[in-house]
Amino acid sequence: AGLHSTQLQFAARRVLKEYLCLAHGLVQPAPKTLQMPLRSFVVRGSARSLVDTRMGKRAATELRAVRHLLLPGGGCLSLVAVRIHTGRTHQIRVHLSTEGHPLVGDGLYGTGHCAAIGASRTFLHAQKLCLEVQGDRLDINAPLAADLRPALNALVVLDTRSRLAAAILK
């Protein structure tokens, strides 16, 4: 019964899904919701998605920058808190890339490896999942993956607000 209930919550989009990602450029700190329909397809056995206003399915991504960071040698990055209201293939990656803020390490929708900070994979972390289990709310929190921590430590925090966020994340 528990598995079926959980599956129904996912299908009804009642599960809260929160992520943390590192994106290129300065994402504005004010919360913003991106509403861009996505169409998924397969190329040589690999899933891809793109914004398609005619044939895409509804996709909503809520985001806010929690920290602005300076790359060694110049350039800015934003640590972004993301909540998805739909669960489309590569939704966060496509939406942020379309906004001009591809994720660090994303070779499919961005520039790929970011050697300056040692990012060996896409900097996207599933941080929190909230669902209902037997009438009670269950919050599942995952600490930042160990392989992503060095990338954050290699960066300089740009502003006071970001320094406060950095202290909380450590």
From TrEMBL:
Q: Where is the Pseudouridine synthase RsuA/RluA-like domain?
A: 7-97
Query: Which InterPro entries did the record assign?
Result: PsdUridine_synth_cat_dom_sf, PsdUridine_synth_RsuA/RluA, RluA_PseudoU_synthase
Question: Transmembrane ranges?
Answer: none
Q: Which GO terms describe its molecular function?
A: pseudouridine synthase activity; RNA binding
Q: Name one GO biological process term.
A: enzyme-directed rRNA pseudouridine synthesis
- Report the sequence similarity comment from the record: Belongs to the pseudouridine synthase RluA family.
- Tell me which PANTHER family the record gives: MITOCHONDRIAL RNA PSEUDOURIDINE SYNTHASE, RNA PSEUDOURIDYLATE SYNTHASE DOMAIN-CONTAINING PROTEIN 1
- Its name, as the record gives it, is Pseudouridine synthase RsuA/RluA-like domain-containing protein
What species is this protein from? Alexandrium andersonii
